[in-house]
């Protein structure tokens, strides 16, 4: 993928993800230009088939998962349990990926899988299973970093 | 006397069901029951034994998805307005859902106003 296409894809993912994070989680998602590295504890993933086939990951920290869940559910973070936070984190990737794909192609449907979540050592292992070619996009929500990573199975993004 | 309604919320995400429940409870409508189901099969089980005025359903769920739920509801001649609430708002999916009996569509992410709009349209 050339730089122009990568930049367009970054914009599309940023716009689609921002809409979800602002509308449903009442937070601001800020794109970061460089590929940031950070200690993460959670990886959520979802795969899709349609005009393009691929997999989408969100990599983030537990504290951010709790903050986003608390905001989504209008609850205090200390009243949440892990199960509810994991469920909410899976809903984040479901909505973000769905919105990205909708903005790719508003006509044809994509089949998307039920999201999976990996925590702690399983999250680290999940990173090792990623294909060689992925497209990472870095963001911040407040002080917290997160990464959205896309892998396409076949072909490349048009235009 | 103020009329009260029963609503069935179908989504495999417990947190999304909680959000929709809170949004419903924040409206001026009075709900005698807000039932929850994690997939289409659970929804059909609930519909067997309970009077429901409206169904809000996700599409992408394990066991039985939302499209199959509206199909079966149509086959069983349930006269209940069913609104799809999904990330998949492609023209192809919306047309399929409407063809099989859905009365409306809310794209995730959604605002509280969208939920209120469907209540106004189908419960008033």
How would you describe this protein?
- The complex is a heterodimer of chains A (about 160) and B (about 120).
- Chain A is α+β, with helices and mostly antiparallel strands.
- Chain A has one domain (about 5-150): 3-Layer(aba) Sandwich (Chemotaxis protein chec).
- Helices cover about 40% and strands about 25% of the residues of chain A.
- Chain A is built from 4 helices and 7 strands, in the order αβββααββαββ.
- In chain A, strand 2 and strand 3 form a beta hairpin.
- Chain A is globular.
- The mean pLDDT of chain A is about 90.
- With about 120 residues, chain B is α/β, with parallel strands linked by helices.
- Chain B has a single domain, classed as Rossmann fold (3-Layer(aba) Sandwich), CATH 3.40.50.2300.
- Helix content of chain B is about 45%, strand content about 25%.
- Chain B has a 5-stranded parallel β-sheet, with helices on both faces.
- Chain B is globular.
- Chain B starts with a strand and ends with a helix.
- The mean pLDDT of chain B is about 95.
- The interface between A and B is medium-sized, with 29 and 24 residues.
Summarize this structure as a short list of keywords or feature phrases.
heterodimer, A: 159 residues, alpha+beta, Chemotaxis protein chec, seven-stranded antiparallel beta sheet, 42% helix, 26% strand, B: 124 residues, alpha/beta, Rossmann fold, five-stranded parallel beta sheet, 5 helices, 5 strands, 23% strand, globular
Number of helices of chain B: 5
Shape of chain B: globular
- Sheet-strand content of chain A, in percent, reads 25-35%
Helix-strand pattern of chain B: EHEHEHEHEH
What share of the residues of chain A lie within helices?
40-55%
Number of DSSP E strands of chain B: 5
The most extensive interface, with participating residues per chain, is: A-B, 29 and 24 residues
- Helicity of chain B, in percent? 40-55%
Oligomer: heterodimer
User: What is the third-level CATH name, the topology of chain A?
Assistant: Chemotaxis protein chec
Instruction: Report strand % of chain B.
Output: 15-25%
End-to-end Cα distance of chain A, whole Å, is 11 Å
Low-confidence stretches of chain A: none
The biggest sheet of chain A amounts to: 7 strands, antiparallel
Q: What count of helical segments of chain A does DSSP give?
A: 4
Class from secondary-structure proportions of chain B: alpha/beta
Superfamily at the CATH H level of chain A?
Answer: CheC-like
Give the CATH superfamily of chain B: Response regulator
* SSE pattern of chain A, N- to C-terminal: HEEEHHEEHEE
């Amino acid at each position: 993928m050339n730089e122009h296409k990568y930049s367009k894809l970054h914009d599309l993912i940023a716009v689609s993800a921002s809409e979800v994070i602002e509308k449903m989680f009442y937070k601001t998602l800020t794109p970061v230009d460089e590929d940031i590295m950070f200690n993460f504890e959670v990886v959520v993933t979802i795969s899709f088939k349609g005009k393009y086939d691929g997999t989408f990951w969100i990599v983030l920290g537990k504290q951010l998962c709790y903050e986003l869940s608390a905001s989504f559910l209008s609850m205090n973070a200390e009243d949440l349990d892990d199960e509810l936070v994991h469920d909410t984190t899976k809903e984040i990737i479901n909505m973000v990926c769905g919105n990205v794909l909708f903005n790719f192609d508003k006509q044809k449907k994509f089949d998307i899988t039920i999201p999976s979540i990996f925590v702690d050592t399983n999250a680290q292992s999940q990173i090792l299973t990623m294909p060689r070619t992925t497209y990472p996009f870095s963001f911040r929500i407040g002080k917290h970093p997160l990464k959205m990573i896309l892998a396409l199975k076949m072909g490349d993004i048009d235009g | 006397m103020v009329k009260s309604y029963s609503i069935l919320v179908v989504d495999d995400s417990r947190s999304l069901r909680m959000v929709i429940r809170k949004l419903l409870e924040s409206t001026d409508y009075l709900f005698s029951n807000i039932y929850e189901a994690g997939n289409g099969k659970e929804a059909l089980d609930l519909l067997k034994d309970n009077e429901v005025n409206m169904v809000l359903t996700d599409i992408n769920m394990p066991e039985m998805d939302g499209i199959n739920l509206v199909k079966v509801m149509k086959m069983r001649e349930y006269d209940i307005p069913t609104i799809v609430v999904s990330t998949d708002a492609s023209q192809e999916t919306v047309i399929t859902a409407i063809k099989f009996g859905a009365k409306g569509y809310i794209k995730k992410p959604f605002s509280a106003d969208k939920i209120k709009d469907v209540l106004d349209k189908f419960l008033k």
